[in-house]
Structures are given as structure tokens and as C-alpha cells.
Design goal:
By secondary structure, the chain is an alpha+beta fold. It has one domain: Spore Coat Polysaccharide Biosynthesis Protein SpsA, Chain A (Alpha-Beta Complex), CATH 3.90.550.10. A hairpin with a 2-residue loop joins strand 7 and strand 8. The chain is about 30% helix and about 25% strand. The chain contains seven helices and twelve strands. The strands form three sheets. Strands 3, 5, 6, 7, 8, 9, 10 and 11 form an eight-stranded mixed β-sheet that branches. The protein is globular, with a radius of gyration of 18 Å.
């Protein structure tokens, strides 16, 4: 919801022609072979999102819109009128299950991932993905921090062969003069600069929907009355790994990333996009 940014960063213009960050992801996805885009949005910005995006690339790729609301996929007995906080990324994933029947990628609308990430995802989804094999694009944590405050990241552990063995969602990571640390109350954990993290850039077989729905039912029962609980994709992924249901391959497409967590991040993102246009990575106008 952009609470730390101070607005709807997903539909804010950052490019030289007021392009949103999401438009660069869609552009990179299309030129990497993706043929469909599904927007998962709040009802409040549905009409605005359609007005911004459909005229730009609605003729170049199939487009679907689905709503994530506080009662989406939630049985009546678990609907809490006091809840204000969205249920999180894995809940958003479930909201799209009726419009996705093919291997697919999942990204954040306010993160820039770079063309190589989409190329790697496309190749994996065409040639390797299966009901028991999904993927994520890994990014070194040193490259995905903000200079203006703490960030949340899924910190990964992996095998020598490059398969994910586990992930912990760390919600208060920051760079200091002494290194990169996560602080949670009295706990202070140092994280190696090259440790891979998840930036919510995933590749899934549609079998993940049934796997996720089982966990969602358990999550609702366990967190009834907890107004701040969130159902994250890393929770789903960890469960799939621990129960031996699926493996997650870490792809090495995470070479460039930037995003907007705080309002102060805006200037950096605007300048970074201008440099990419100037270097010819993107045309003068995307559409």
C-alpha cells in the first residue's frame, strides 16, 4: 500500500515519459517471450491501473485484472471487520489462480528487476519448470538495500548446486558502517554481502496454486484474530521444500535491481532509468 513511500508507488511515474516501474518489467517480459500480464490490484486503484496500462500495451500482450481484497479467498468465518492490513504476497498469488493456467512469473509492481531476470525466467518456464520444480531469481543482498531506512528481504540458504534450502523473511535489514545487519528487538544478525535474497521474483508451475491453497486454509485458522498476520510467498516456498513437495532452483539473473521503499528513493530510481535510456537499454519511448 506504499505506507513508507507515501503514496501508490505502483502507479507513480519514474521514467523520462512518466513510465511506471512496472512498465519496464512488462517491456522486458514481452521481449523475453512472455505473452500475458495479470495485474493483482486493490479495488481502489483498479480503474486508474486500467486507464494507465491498457492503452499502452494492451494490444501487445494479453492483459487480465484481478482484485486482492480483505475478503478475497477468505471464508466468512475468518473475515474480520477490524482488519486493515492486506494479507500479503501469497494471498495475492491465490487471488490470480482462476486466470492463470500456464507456467508463470511473479514480481512486485514497484521493483525494477532488469531484462536478464526475465530472460532467465522465460528460459526456465519454457524448458525446466514442472509440478515439483519452481524457481526464483536471486539477488546479492548488498545490491538491494535502501540508503534511507530498513527493508524487508527473504534471506536465502542454498545447496552448492543452487537449490534453495530455506528462506527467512527479515523485516528490518540495513547497511551500517560495520556491515549489513538485521535487527529485531535485542537480536542483531549480520548478513554476508553476497548472500542471495528473494526480491519476490519467482517462476512457478500452476501446480503451486493447489499447494498454496492448502497452506492458506491452515494460515487463516492459526492466525484468526491476528490483524497484522501476513501470508508470504516465502512461507509457501519453505513449506514446499521442507515437506519434499517441490524444489526451488535459484537463477542467476539478478544482476540489477532498484526499487522504491521510501520517498527519498525516488530520485535514485529516476536517475537510474534515465541512464538506462541514455545507454540504449530502452528506447526513447517504451510504447
Amino acid at each position: 500500500m506504499g505506507s513508507r513511500y507515501g503514496g501508490d508507488k505502483q502507479i507513480d511515474g519514474f521514467g523520462p515519459n512518466q513510465e511506471t516501474i512496472l512498465e519496464y518489467s512488462v517491456y522486458d517480459a514481452i521481449r523475453s517471450g512472455f505473452g500475458k500480464v495479470v495485474f493483482i490490484v486493490r479495488k481502489e486503484i483498479l480503474d486508474v491501473a486500467k486507464a494507465i496500462f491498457v492503452p499502452k500495451f494492451g494490444s501487445k500482450v494479453a492483459v487480465e485484472f484481478v482484485i486482492q481484497s480483505l475478503d478475497s479467498m477468505v471464508p466468512d468465518r475468518y473475515v474480520d471487520p477490524e482488519r486493515k492490513k492486506p494479507y500479503g504476497t501469497a494471498h495475492a498469488l491465490l487471488c490470480a489462480k482462476d486466470v492463470i493456467n500456464e507456467p508463470f512469473a511473479v514480481i512486485n509492481a514497484d521493483d525494477f528487476y532488469g531484462e536478464e531476470a526475465f530472460q532467465m525466467l522465460s528460459a526456465f518456464l519454457r524448458n525446466e519448470v514442472g509440478p515439483q520444480l519452481h524457481c526464483m531469481v536471486g539477488y546479492a543482498i548488498k545490491n538491494v538495500l535502501s540508503d534511507y531506512g530498513t527493508v524487508s528481504r527473504g534471506v536465502c540458504e542454498s545447496t552448492p548446486e543452487g537449490f534453495l534450502t530455506g528462506m527467512v523473511e527479515r523485516t528490518a535489514i540495513a547497511r551500517t558502517a560495520d556491515g549489513i545487519f538485521h535487527k529485531d528487538g535485542a537480536e542483531k544478525l549480520e548478513i554476508a554481502p553476497d548472500n542471495p535474497v528473494s526480491m519476490n521474483c519467482w517462476g512457478f508451475h500452476p501446480a503451486v496454486f493447489a499447494q498454496t491453497e492448502k497452506l492458506w486454509t491452515s494460515f487463516l485458522a492459526e492466525n484468526q484474530g491476528n490483524l497484522k498476520s501476513e501470508f508470504y510467498i516465502p512461507k509457501v516456498v519453505n513449506s514446499l521444500i521442507q515437506e519434499g513437495i517441490a524444489r526451488i532452483k535459484i537463477l542467476e539473473g539478478g544482476k540489477i535491481w532498484f526499487g522504491v521503499t521510501y520517498g527519498q528513493d525516488r530520485e535514485y530510481v529516476v536517475n537510474a532509468l534515465q541512464k538506462l535510456h541514455a545507454a540504449g537499454v530502452y528506447p526513447e519511448k517504451l510504447w
